[in-house]
Amino acid sequence: MLSAVLRSQTAIEVSIKIMGAFVEMRRFIQNNAQVFARLESVERRQIAFESSTNGKFEQIFNALESGQEKPKQGIFYDGQVYDAYIFAGDLIRSAKNR
What b-and-e string marks burial along 8-42, b requiring 16 or more CB atoms within 10 Å of the CB? Predict the structure, then answer.
């Protein structure tokens, strides 16, 4: 490629190194095909989980906005103040928007 245009020893060496890099990339992709397949599978599962979670949040928000009667049992039982504090703190820290 490059050596056909420039006709120098440096151009020939660079062309050989470029071809070697492409050969190594092909080997890397072939050797790690299973890893790439598993990564794609994980991404699909994450997208499915995300969509189902968004639906559940929508149900919760709709219930809160409609003014329905609050449930008698909350997330935490009596005496779990520390657990509730940790949960609320983690929830606030994980927020992406206000």
Answer: eeeeeeebeeeeeeeeeeeeeeeeeeeeeeeeeee
**Residues 51/46/27/18 CA torsion (nearest 10 deg):** 60
pLDDT tens-digit series, residues 74-97: 666 666 777 777 888 888 888 877
Alpha-carbon distance 24 to 30, whole Å?
A: 10
CB 14 within 8 A of CB 2: yes
Q: Which amino acid is at 63?
A: A
Predicted TM-score of the model (pTM): 0.38
Helical (H) or strand (E) element with 69:
none
Looking up tokens 């779990």 gives 80
Burial class (CB in 10 A: 0-12, 13-18, 19+), 3: middle
